[in-house]
User: Fold these one by one.
Assistant:
Number 1:
Amino acid sequence: MSSVVLHQWEISPFCQKVSRMLRFKGIAFESVNYNGLLAAKVPMLSKVGKVPVLDINGKLIQDSTRIARYLDQTYPDLPLLYPTDPLLKAQVELWEDWADELLYFYEVYFRVTDPQAFNQAVAIAGQGRPAHESILVKPMLKAALMMQIKMQGIGRMAKADIEAEFRGHLARIELVLQQTGWLVGDCQTIADIAVGSQLREVIRTSMRWAEHIKGYPHIQQWIQRL
C-alpha cells in the first residue's frame, strides 16, 4: 500500500477536494472508501470523527484545509496550493472558506431535495457495497443531509430564493473567471480546487443543474481544466 492513504467518503466534496490537491501536487496516493455501512467505522479514524483523513507515513491529518496547509508545508518544492504573496494568499483563503462554509450547503440542498439527484447520491455512496445496504443507507443519508441544511438555515428558505441565490453565486464566479481563467491570480490554487469540488458534486448528481451550469462558458472551461 502507498505511504500516502486518503480515507474518504467518496461522495464528499471535501474528500474530492483532498484527492484533487494530491493530484495537483503530484503526490501518489491510495484511497480507502467508507461507502455504505462502512461509514460507521469513520469515527475511529480521528477525534473529530469525520473524513477526509490523510495518512502520510503513519501521521493522520483530518480536515481538508488542515491537510492542504500540511501538504504545502511538507512538500514546498511541489506546486503550491497557497500563493506566497500575502494578499493573494488572503484572497485564496477567503474563497476556500466560502466554498467550505457556504457553497457546500447549496450542494447538499440540491442533492437531498431533488429525487433524481438523491438517488444518484445514494448509488455513489453505496459503490462497492452489497445492494441491500441501500435500503438502510438511503433513509440514514437523507436524514443526515436534511439535518445539516436545517441547522445551517438554508433548509428553512423558500426554494425559489435558494435557487436565485445560487444563480447569483454562479454569475459572480463566471465574472471572476473571465479575468485570468482562475479565481485568484493567473494559476490554479486551493481556491479553484475548493470551489470546483463543490460545483462538480452538484454536476455529478444533479442533471438539472449540470445542464444549467453549461450556460456559463468560463465555468465550464475552468471545471474541465480542474
Number 2:
Amino acid sequence: MEGLQQICLRCFHLIPAETQTCPHCGADLAAFAARDYADKLIAALGHSLSEVRMRAIIALGWRGEGRAAQPLLELALRHPVDVVEGLAVVKSLAGMGVEGRIALVALAERHQAHAVRETAQQVLRTIRHAKH
C-alpha cells in the first residue's frame, strides 16, 4: 500500500500527503489552503468531475458570491452540452446582484443550449418585474 495521499486543491491530482508543492502544477499547497473559502469554491469550478463543479456552483449561489459571476459564466460557456450544469449556473447567478445579472445577459445571448438561454431570459424578466 502506498503512503498517505492528498489531492492538490488547485489541479486536483493525487499527490503524496507530505508534499508542500504540487509536482503537477507547482501550487504552494499551504498558501492555497489558507485562501478564502469562496476562492476555493471558484477554483473548484475547474475540476474535471462534474459533481465537484456542481457542488461549487450550488455553494457559490447559496453564498451570493458576486465575484463568482464571471467564473460561473465562463464555466457554463466552456461546457455548453451540460445543460443541467448550465441551469444550475443560471439559478446561482440569480442571487448575485449586478454581477449575476450581467452574466445572465451573456448566457441569454451566448449559451449554445436553448434551455439555458431561455431560462436565463426568464430569470432576468423575473428580476426586472421584482424591481417594479
